[in-house]
Every structure is written in structure tokens, then in C-alpha cells.
Amino acid sequence: MSSTTIYVGNLDQRVTEPMLLDFFTPMGTVTNIKLMIVPRNNSFNPVKYGFVEFAESASADKAIQELNGFKILDHEIKVNWAQQNQKEEVPNQFQVFVGDLAPEINDEALSQAFSVFGPLINAHVMKDTMTGNSRGFGFVTYREKAEANQAIASMNGELLGSRNIRVNWASQKTDTPPPRPGQQLPYETVVQQTPNYVTSVYVGNLPPNVSDNELVQPFQRFGFIQEVKLQADKGFAFVKLDTHQNAANAIVHLQGMIINGREAKLSWGKDRPASNWPSYSNQRQQPSNWRQVRH
Fold first, then answer.
1. Cα separation of 149 and 169, whole Å?
2. pTM of this prediction?
3. Is 233 exposed, middle or buried (0-12, 13-18, 19+ CB in 10 A)?
4. How far apart are CA 111 and CA 119, in angstroms?
5. How much is the pLDDT for 183?
6. Residue 107: which residues within 8 A CB-CB, separation 6 or more?
7. 266: which residues sit within 8 A by CB, 6+ positions away?
8. Over the stretch 167-180, which tens digit does the pLDDT of each residue have?
9. What is the pLDDT of residues 86-101, one digit of tens each?
10. Do residues 190 and 248 touch, judged by C-beta distance below 8 A?
11. What residues are paired with 166 via a beta bridge?
């Protein structure tokens, strides 16, 4: 963190970024505000804290000296210099950077696009504090690294709103490109990307007029199709096959197939392991609205 950024903790759940802006602006020019909302174990009340960045270090120092211990909505806030990777009573979290966002994408749209890969801790579009307009990038945060990896692999280069987005680890250097959706990889690489209990394939870049049958036909060459979950209006689907190896073969051989004029982009989906699986007992279950495919 820079010498102009301060940490603000113990925030009331009702505190918003505009409220923090009004509260800290008397200390000096605020250039950026970021709120973090993180679920707390065994509690319905999440942890809320944030970071406030000033134009000048003197303003940040003044805020620490004058506002630490001050009450906002009956909560005595903690104000101090921000530390690298600072967290407040938070579980493991894995933050993903999302760039080249279209102006119409807000927090809700960002959350909706990325929550398909797992429950989100936070989804936030960064805004200009003066105009309130999007700065063209944001962050989504997952509790599971596998879910963050899946989001990066599946969403980098995808169309969100009116633009193709860039997706990568928030802390990763830009000269190390993430895997792109639709990337052609050998079977030996694909089959080892996820545990053997994963048999679901993510299919992205689908046209809105695609049908279940148009997905079943190409996939049934590679094994028995157990389930299909299609969200054509959002441009993606999940196809669940009978074995991990058959699903890997489908990803390799169907990568880039044309469906109604669009090049499909395939990667691994998400499955819950069997109850006797030793190392992955906390993985997320597939959504309950999967449909059984009858043959």
C-alpha cells in the first residue's frame, strides 16, 4: 500500500462508499475508496472494512490522527496506515482483477457474471470519486482458489456488456498472461487441471438461440451425458458427462466448435465430490436447477 492509503475498520454494515467520501473529504482530497465485505464464520453479520486513498500523504496522516476512534453510526472506527494484504478477521480470499469493463457494468452485473463459478465474497467496480463513473475495472473475490482459477480461465476475453473483458489474478504481473477461454490444450494438460470427480464442462460464448439438443449432439460422441444446464440468455451452459476422462476428451476435441455462428469456448465446470472423497469435502455443489437429459 502507498503512503497515501489508510485502513478503516470496524464499520457498520450500513456504511457506504459515498458516506466514507463525505466523512474523509474534510481531511483532504480523496482519490479512491474501496469497501470490503467478507462473511464471518458462524454469523449472519459479515465483516466490513475499507481503504481510503488520499492525494497527499499529509491528508492521510491527518485522518489517522483525528478520526481514529471516531463513531460512524454508533461504531467506533479503526483508522490506521494500510498494510500490504491487510485483512480484518477474514477467511482465505482470492481476488481476481477484471479490466476493460464497459461503462454500463455495475457491481450487480459484475457479481452476476462471476458468481456462476462460486459464491463471491465481493464484487466491486471501481469508480471515479468525482464523477461517479466507472474507471473501467473492478475486482471479484472468492473464498476458494479453484473457483477463482475457473473464473480466470473461463472469463478472460469473454464479452461482458459491450466489451470483451480482461481477467487475471489481482496480484499477478501483467506480463504473465492468464489462460484464455477457448485455448487449445493437449489432453494430458486438460485431464490434470481438475480432480477426477469433476465431470462437468463449461461451454461459453453461446448464442441466445441455442437449444439443449444442439449441445447434446456434439457431446454425446464422448460419453453418456448425465445433465445439461443451459442459460442461453447469459451465453453459457454446463454439460455433465459420465467420467472425468470423457469430459477432458470433449474439452479437447470440441474446443472452438461453431454453434449457430459462434465459436464455443470450453473449460472445466464445477462438481461436488463424493462423500468419501478425502481432500475436497468443502467443494461447492452444482446448482439445484440442473436438468436430467433423457436418451
1. 8
2. 0.41
3. exposed
4. 9
5. 62
6. 123, 124, 125, 138
7. 181, 182, 201, 202, 203, 204, 250, 251, 254, 255
8. 888 754 344 444 45
9. 544 444 678 888 888 9
10. yes
11. 99
